[in-house]
């Protein structure tokens, strides 16, 4: 079984720590390792370094090789430019299709936290064994919701189909991407909707068939590139052809068109958190509700339910009478926001483009 970890996002919701030149998945948000390094750690030793592939942008070539010296050189798949995850998955899965067309693969992401690591690996391996028996399927790995999040996608889950290794498999009945608060509250009450982690297990052959059927433009463009894979002219043709399709997400290109009979869902609690935004990082790290989460030189009085990260060793950050705040201090930016306002960060960073503040993005 192979694992593909995608690490190409820019992470604007984690600004000002996460920048274009050094996105959040390469920063040490938890302890002394980046979330990319943690993503590798939780796969080993069940997955050898030779079985792990990294997909990212060529701009991060140096940093991913430095952080992951154990991964073989040929297992780094670089996109020459940003084209959303639809073309990126087609490229890396297409490469694996040339090598291991019918071997199970797990699609994973570099900016998540998983606390139940042993159980997570058991789920991956069990799903991989199921795919060996039914190679023309996708098995989604979802999570029991802890709260009614409006920042996550949801999977509509049907009846229980069967069990393997004490892990249940359920009907797949569709997706709902980032519902409003009223809808999210209803989802939590019905127990028929789970958080969509973006994790799934399938085979390269099945994924490429889905691209050929539902996204022929991306498929044909990828095939133009892959005919040169392993040859001297590969990189030249990758740069020439990769950008010739418009950006499209994998959900839009493939998953929204997927026949429901071609997928199943695993629903478990693996202690998962999407730490793609500051308030999500706080929720992942807090040991009890309303706890403050701090890093660096910080002094607080009457502060509740806040995250304060200070990355300047020579500066003390002091907070007084604050509730539900996010404060992040770097050497060139100080961010102060209410937790509920964190989604606005992305738009603010986008507004900096073309201004004197663009250098800060």
TrEMBL record:
PANTHER family the UniProt entry points to: MANNOSE-1-PHOSPHATE GUANYLYLTRANSFERASE
Species in which this protein is naturally found: Candidatus Roizmanbacteria bacterium CG2_30_33_16
GO biological process, one term: GDP-mannose biosynthetic process
Database matches in InterPro entries: Mannose-6P_isomerase_type2 (IPR051161), NTP_transferase_dom (IPR005835), Nucleotide-diphossugar_trans (IPR029044)
Residue ranges of domain Nucleotidyl transferase in the record: 2-286
A Pfam entry, by short name: NTP_transferase
Name of the protein this chain belongs to: Nucleotidyl transferase domain-containing protein
GO molecular function, one term: mannose-1-phosphate guanylyltransferase (GTP) activity
Domain of life: Bacteria
